[in-house]
Design brief:
373 residues, alpha/beta, 10-stranded mixed beta sheet, 15 strands
Length: 373
């Protein structure tokens, strides 16, 4: 395992990105299939006037208030802070489109019309909705969030719905043309393994014109039964036969997947995580496995395992979506043919910019950010 942490790598990566515009424009990407409307709220502790209030500061304090109302009742006032698009797929796709990749997003973005929350996204990318988005209300506190979801529409993410509502001919053209395919949020989409199998059955026996780069994000699989996770991993492995498959994991997920696969290992240091990525890749026989803890990222491919320290900040403006931005930057590095250290550097830099600015970087902004590291 090689650990890389230097401004030289950042400068080299910036130089690689400077001349990448034309190459990125030649890499059509197809991503799916989730989609959420995220509404961020404060919980009112005390109200001073019609326009002024003091929020409940901590999730712990809110929990005590709820517990204290047992056997009685509790009136809770919430104040909307902002509404934004959500979901692993839309956030990653938005970031990739901001960096110059021609993106088509096929997912829960509104049907038959695109939901307004995805309006800005639809200006940057080709957004094709086949189901309405699920909804999440996030009550934010200084020590955490309480997420309350209405997720009935996830059951509509089936291959039949994708083909019928997008159009069978359109779907086939998009799939055949895509150089990159990104699929996230397996955990929350109950029919996703079936969708993967049907895609494989449609392409079985057909010699592809080129090997696609495919990225998969399981998204907190601990919520699912171990046999379901094992079946998903087995199905995912079959994509490697005709494509180059990347499995993306955060630190917690890497240990969960290792447990399902019977891989022994522990620790959260850079060497331990890089070694774990290599063991998971070897077990699943994939092109690449990448793991992104908060302060660094590690990945393994056939050439070896590497880790790169990230531009960590203790006071991010936003944290939700940081992993999806890492995935976007890392995959763009892979699409550009970068070696693993540069791809990791692009990943941590894209995420680092996002958490500082609460916005997805453009290619020019990311180049300038890399030059400051």
């Amino acid at each position: 395992m090689t650990t890389i942490s230097s401004s030289r790598l950042a400068r080299q990566t910036a130089e690689r990105l400077i001349g990448s515009r034309a190459a990125l424009q030649r890499t059509p990407a197809l991503l799916g299939f989730d989609g959420f409307v995220d509404r961020i709220y404060h919980v009112v502790d005390s109200r001073k006037s019609a326009t002024e209030y003091a929020p409940v500061k901590t999730l712990k304090a809110f929990g005590h208030r709820i517990a204290g109302a047992a056997g009685k009742s509790l009136n809770v006032e919430i104040v909307l802070q902002h509404t934004k698009l959500g979901g692993n797929g839309p956030i990653m796709a938005f970031a990739m489109s901001s960096l110059g990749v021609p993106v088509t997003y096929c997912g829960m973005t509104g049907y038959p019309k695109v939901h307004p929350v995805f309006g800005e996204f639809a200006k940057r990318a080709n957004v094709l909705g086949f189901a309405d988005p699920a909804e999440t209300d996030a009550y934010e506190f200084s020590d955490g969030k309480l997420l309350v979801g209405r997720h009935a529409t996830v059951a509509e993410v089936t291959f039949d719905n994708i083909r019928k509502r997008i159009g069978d001919t359109t779907w086939r053209k998009l799939w055949d043309a895509a150089r990159f395919v990104g699929i996230g949020n397996w955990t929350m989409l109950p029919h996703m393994t079936s969708v993967w199998k049907k895609i494989q059955s449609e392409t079985a026996g057909k010699e592809p014109a080129f090997r696609k780069l495919m990225f998969f994000d399981l998204a907190d699989p601990e919520k699912r039964a171990r046999p379901d996770i094992a079946a998903a991993l087995k199905t995912l492995m079959k994509f490697q036969e005709q494509n180059d498959v990347i499995l993306g994991l955060n630190e917690r997920e890497s240990h969960q997947i290792a447990g399902v696969l019977g891989i022994k290992g522990g620790g959260s240091g850079e060497k331990q995580i890089a070694d774990l990525a290599a063991k998971i890749r070897e077990k699943l026989k994939l092109h690449c496995v990448v793991v992104h803890p908060v302060k660094f990222a590690a990945a393994a491919d056939a050439q070896g395992a590497y880790s790169v320290t990230g531009p960590f900040t203790p006071k991010p403006k936003i944290s939700t979506g940081a992993g999806d931005h890492f995935n976007a930057g890392f995959c763009i590095g892979c699409l550009l043919g970068c070696e693993l250290p540069q791809s990791l550097q692009l990943g941590v830099a894209t995420s680092g910019f996002y958490v500082r600015q609460a916005a997805s970087p453009s290619r020019e902004q990311l180049v300038r950010f890399l030059q400051t590291l």
